[in-house]
Amino acid sequence: MFLTYIGAEGGRNEVWYLDTGATNHMCGEKALFTSLEPNDGEVSFGDASKISVEERGVIAVTLNGKEVHRNDVFYVPGLKSNILSLGQLVEKGYCVRLRDGTLAMKDHERREVVKVKMTTNRLFTLRMDAKETVCLARTEEEEESWLWHHRMGHLGFTGLKLLSHSKMVEGLPMISPPQKVCEACTKEKMKRQMFEGGKSRRARRQLELVHSDIAGPFETTSVGGSKYYITFTDDFSRKCWVYFLREKSEALDRFKEFKAMAEKESGQPLKVLRTDRGGEYTSRLFDEFCKEWGISHQLTAAYSPQQNGVAERKNLTIMNMARSMVKGKGLPKKFWAEAVQVVAYLLNRCPTKSVKFMTLFEAWIGWKPSVKHLRVFGCVAYAHVPDHGRKKLDDKSEKCIFVGYAPMSKAYKLYNPVTEKAIISRDVVFEKDNSWSWDEAVRSTKGMFFDDDDEEDGGQEAKDEMGGAEQPSPPS
Ligand SMILES: [Zn+2]
């Protein structure tokens, strides 16, 4: 019926019909779209009629001088009215209530965003220039931006925007910075070091120069039993790899592992390794290994951290982000290693100043990474348990926490706080990552998580634990 209905109130671009019968938002005005992509599918209406939709995209409207976007809108040429699908809004987390001829809609935080009275034609219409619409649109858009801020490990909105606008990764929607500031970021007084700069001469190919540094020991042993981590950063691409150590003496073994993997991936030999003078790097065995493979090992001058600046700046960034992620989800300290691993993974998919117009991942391997599969670190996830692993009446899924990305296998790393077991699974259902309440988690996991009674102390505690060891260690 909407197909033929022409809005009585105002121009047809301004009025949107709130419709329970439509499966999708729809717009017939091509000019309102900022982006369109091919779509094969059809849209059904309340009266069971269907039409095919060849394009879908993002709508932008300018309101109060500000541009707002709505994603996933079908472009239906010839459609005379704009339609907002209530079903689609409900799916986004909005709550809709119809009572006494008034339609009220609330967002996931129970804030009222829309309230409209039924028209004489028994329709619910929304003017795009109405104030509540601004609110609604911004909320939806903001929600998405927040979600990606969390998925990308609290990457600043400037970085996120750059990543999406410059199309440096696959699968990231349009990002626009929200009005509010991120509490987790502010609380930790994060110093974003995304835009690290380097003045010294840069390597011209992969593995021409690799920077390495060790962080630790950490007060709390990680879930996997580690006390330290070691990073290897390729100077050319600035891509970074992290390995975990129980003892500093394992540094050489991890270096061998890294060398074999990185050389195979890039097809280039590792030429120069630059580290500080930590004992783990200056052992006889380390020296012998470098000589054997013709690797020139550069040791930075004592008390001159800027010489090994790349590795140390990387460590600072990793620690800041990891702290923010662990604290942000109220996870126990022992998850520092999982957080560090995820951060390294994310950093390789973030923009930096050192490599322009592409992610470190692309600079290393030559193609754009996708971020479609990213989820919020620490959120609740349900792993499907295969038949043979359970009794008939048991739960078919296991409630876990999402703690990382399994390398090479397109699977997720999960942790079950009850059984204290780690799980790798491809078959995972995530709790809507933007709306999880950790108060609930604290109760439901029997003291597994930090008590949130004293925010200040909690923050300090996490900082000491995770931050104490991150400082560039003076040469021993
Ligand atoms: Zn944040």
Major sheet summary line: 5 strands, mixed
- What's the multimeric state? single chain
Q: In total, how many beta strands?
A: 20
**Bound ligands, each once:** zinc ion
**Strand ordering within the main sheet:** 13-12-11-14-15
- Contiguous helical run count: 11
Structural class by helix and strand composition: alpha+beta
Mean pLDDT across all amino acids: 76
Distance between the termini: 78 Å
Keywords: Hydrolase, Protease
Domain Integrase catalytic: 202-368
Biased composition (Acidic residues): 450-459
Region (Disordered): 447-476
List descriptors.
476 residues; binds zinc ion; 11 helices; alpha+beta; elongated; five-stranded mixed β-sheet; five-stranded antiparallel β-sheet
Put the structure in a nutshell:
This protein is 26% helix and 26% strand. The protein is an alpha+beta fold. Helix 7 packs across helix 8 and helix 7 packs antiparallel against helix 11.
